[in-house]
Amino acid sequence: MTVGFLTPLAIALWTSLHGAGGWSIDAYMALAGSTLFWRVMSGTFQIALLSSIAALLLGYPLALHMSQRSPKVRRVLMMLVLIPFWTSILVKSYAFIVLFGREGLLNQALRAWYFPFGPLDLMFNRTGVGIAMAHQVIPFVVFPLLTSMLQVDRNVYRAAEIMGASPYTIFWRVTLPLTLPGAAAAFLIAFTLGLGAYITPALLGGRRDLMIANLIDFRLRETLDWPAASAIAITLTGLVCALIALARRVSRPQH
């Protein structure tokens, strides 16, 4: 498994440093001065950030609800959360096309309910991409959060109840602070996955909303600039590895 990861990474690094004139860092220098690269990187960060926040806001209540249920009910809920994994991202992305199109199911339903603001424009823009990506990473958010919540000693909640704390107070003063490391780790996982998204932006996004993986594909297939594509891939890989290390550090139990 390690060899399968390091071999293509080494090939990409070699390609990024070996241009037509021999060994050089020209690909990285060109990348640093490329307006297109920084615009795409900025858009990638924005979409990944928004989808991660949305997934966290949706996943936290779900994980909290699951943590409060009996083990039997929790297993059923966990299975329901896992069901999206049984479908490929490609199929799910096409499902969102059917849902988000101007004549899609969502706009047809809104029209039937006499929605006053016309059809929603959710195709070929960041909004639709962000919603679809948030849906796809929710399981990656729920399970780290659930693990964090189940690690909290139940006696802490009982003590808070005995002291007269309301459920609202218990959540804000006990549950949220104790699960913040899990929430931070879940957010970083979702953000990391968002940075490398390819299929969903390609199908639901517009030409003005390229993400970094789509730019790599463009450099490889359209301009045949393999050193530039490899340099972008190495840069993205380094960033993702740094985020993974940060997520592991944040989620590490504090003693």
What portion of the residues fall into strands of 2 or more residues?
under 5%
- Enumerate the spans where pLDDT stays under 50 for 5 or more consecutive residues: none
Task: Round the mean pLDDT to the nearest integer and report it.
Answer: 87
Structural class: mainly alpha
Order of helical and strand elements? HEEHHHHHHHHHHH
CATH class: Mainly Alpha
Q: Write out the strand line-up for the largest beta sheet, numbering strands in chain order.
A: 1-2
Number of strands: 2
Helical coverage, percent range: over 70%
Task: Report the sheet with the most strands, covering strand number, pairing sense and barrel closure.
Answer: 2 strands, antiparallel
Based on the model shown, name its key terms:
MetI-like fold; mainly alpha; 12 helices; 255 residues; two-stranded antiparallel sheet; 2% strand
Can you put this structure into words, describing what you see?
It is globular and about 75 Å long. Helix 1 (2-17) crosses helix 12 and helix 3 packs antiparallel against helix 9. A hairpin with a 2-residue loop joins strand 1 (18-19) and strand 2. The chain has a two-stranded antiparallel ribbon. It has helices at 2-17, 26-32, 35-67, 71-82, 89-100, 105-112, 126-150, 154-162, 167-195, 199-204, 212-221, 226-251; strands at 18-19, 22-23. The chain contains 12 helices and 2 strands. The protein has one domain (2-251): MetI-like (MetI-like fold, Orthogonal Bundle). The chain is mainly α and 255 residues long.
